């Protein structure tokens, strides 16, 4: 068999996902005193204590298929968002919802518009579907360029993807810019408003939740993977017009999300106390990190999500820095796959993890930029 003859060009072009190192791999390779995983924007506080008993309870009927539309959970989500249950779709994470959107709405020859620095999940899923992606360069402040995105829309455009707040930059579209984008998009083009960091962004004065300026062509994505701390269970949801949701349900995998994920999400969704603690930890951690970076002359982007992006001078520096930190047990994320080879993303963790970051930073980064390598060699 000649694999290359049977694989379509659009799949050949895709690059395999390069996962960050796991805690076990770092322990085995470098034997650091402790490990802080600040690479994947997970909730370092874990998840609500209500989750574990709910999952154990769900295991009692694990031989049965789950409810395909997760009625209980979707009713709870509908209530909190003041919409009808028919406006909600649950799936195995928002990445799955992006895939469902691609399967439901694209036909060959369609294209999509987004920015060149954003969540790779959208790059991948449009690539799998063989859809041309028009990537508009970010502004100098690493934000979405609304005018350029509107200009990129043509008669073949089916979707515009916006992550707000964005990943990896942590930036948001100011409320006025968001309204301009929504108003400027033709009725028959879907705006995908990915709000994976909604819970963190909610309190920021200039953040306009998509729910508050909603039209029939807007699809809002939220997830339980970040603030709710359920990344390992895979569950997220879309809020959209009932007609949009009805079509999407046809294309989703019938029995996603799993019964355990549904039970966990329902338990987590009602724990406002845990959510508040999680958001507060991140707020405090970001302020503290900004202060630390200012003192050490590090360039960074202020963030509305649960991570902060630091800007180094070159890809070489970014590689050396993340590698040096890894040896100290601090796992960070280089974001070359997101379009910024000279940048590194730091997830805000618990106080002890942030101390680990800062102490290791001093040894690896050195007092001044450009001395990365020397510092590594001296040890
Ligand atoms: C983390 C992230 C997601 C991932 O969501 P899952 O629900 O875990 O699939 C989606 N969008 C953005 C912008 C993210 O940063």
UniProtKB/TrEMBL annotation:
The answer to keyword Amino-acid biosynthesis applying to this record is yes
- What reaction is this protein's catalytic activity? L-histidinol phosphate + 2-oxoglutarate = 3-(imidazol-4-yl)-2-oxopropyl phosphate + L-glutamate
Write one Gene Ontology MF term.
pyridoxal phosphate binding
Q: Name one Pfam family in it.
A: Aminotran_1_2
The cofactors it requires, by name, are:
pyridoxal 5'-phosphate
Q: Which residues carry this modification: N6-(pyridoxal phosphate)lysine?
A: 226
Q: Does the keyword Transferase apply?
A: yes
- Which InterPro entries does the entry mention? Aminotrans_II_pyridoxalP_BS, Aminotransferase_I/II_large, HisP_aminotrans, HistidinolP_aminotransfase, PyrdxlP-dep_Trfase, PyrdxlP-dep_Trfase_major, PyrdxlP-dep_Trfase_small
Q: Which SUPFAM superfamilies match?
A: PLP-dependent transferases
Q: Which GO terms describe its biological process?
A: L-histidine biosynthetic process
Which PROSITE patterns does this chain map to? AA_TRANSFER_CLASS_2 (PS00599)
Q: In which pathway does it act?
A: Amino-acid biosynthesis; L-histidine biosynthesis; L-histidine from 5-phospho-alpha-D-ribose 1-diphosphate: step 7/9
Q: Where is the Aminotransferase class I/classII large domain?
A: 37-357
Q: Which UniProt keywords apply?
A: Amino-acid biosynthesis, Aminotransferase, Histidine biosynthesis, Pyridoxal phosphate, Transferase
Q: What is its EC number?
A: 2.6.1.9
Outline the subunit composition.
Homodimer.
Q: Which family does it belong to?
A: Belongs to the class-II pyridoxal-phosphate-dependent aminotransferase family. Histidinol-phosphate aminotransferase subfamily.
Protein known as: Histidinol-phosphate aminotransferase
Q: Which organism is it from?
A: Rhodohalobacter mucosus
Lineage, broadest ranks: Bacteria, Pseudomonadati, Balneolota, Balneolia, Balneolales
């Amino acid at each position: 068999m000649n694999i290359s003859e049977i694989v379509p060009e659009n799949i050949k072009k895709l690059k395999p996902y390069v996962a960050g190192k796991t805690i076990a791999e770092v322990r085995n390779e470098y034997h650091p005193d402790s490990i802080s995983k600040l690479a994947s924007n997970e909730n370092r506080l874990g998840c609500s204590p209500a989750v574990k008993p709910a999952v154990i309870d769900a295991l009692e009927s694990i031989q049965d298929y789950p409810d395909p539309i997760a009625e209980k959970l979707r009713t709870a989500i509908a209530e909190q968002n003041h919409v009808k249950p028919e406006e909600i779709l649950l799936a195995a994470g928002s990445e799955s919802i992006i895939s469902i959107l691609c399967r439901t709405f694209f036909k060959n020859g369609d294209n999509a518009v987004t920015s060149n620095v954003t969540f790779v999940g959208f790059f991948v899923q449009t690539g799998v579907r063989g859809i041309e992606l028009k990537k508009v360069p970010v502004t100098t402040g690493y934000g979405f360029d609304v005018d350029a995105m509107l200009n990129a829309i043509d008669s073949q455009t089916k979707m515009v993807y916006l992550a707000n707040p964005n990943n990896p930059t942590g930036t948001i579209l100011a409320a006025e810019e968001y309204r301009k984008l929504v108003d400027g998009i033709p009725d028959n083009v879907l705006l995908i408003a990915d709000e994976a960091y909604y819970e963190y962004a909610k309190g920021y004065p200039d953040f306009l939740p998509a729910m508050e300026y909603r039209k029939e062509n807007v699809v809002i994505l939220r997830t339980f993977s970040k603030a709710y701390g359920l990344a390992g269970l895979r569950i997220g949801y879309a809020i959209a017009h009932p007609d949009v949701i009805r079509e999407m349900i046809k294309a989703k995998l019938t029995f996603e999300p799993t019964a355990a994920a549904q039970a966990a999400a329902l338990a987590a969704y009602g724990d406002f106390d845990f959510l508040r603690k999680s958001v507060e930890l991140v707020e405090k951690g970001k302020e503290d990190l900004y202060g630390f970076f200012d003192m050490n002359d590090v360039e960074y982007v202020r963030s509305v999500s649960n991570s902060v992006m630091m800007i180094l001078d070159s890809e070489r520096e970014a590689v050396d820095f993340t590698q040096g930190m890894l040896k100290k047990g601090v796992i960070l994320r280089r974001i070359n796959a997101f379009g910024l080879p000279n940048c590194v993303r730091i997830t805000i963790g618990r106080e002890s993890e942030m101390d680990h970051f800062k102490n290791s930073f001093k040894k690896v980064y050195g007092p001044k930029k450009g001395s990365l390598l020397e510092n590594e060699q001296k040890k």
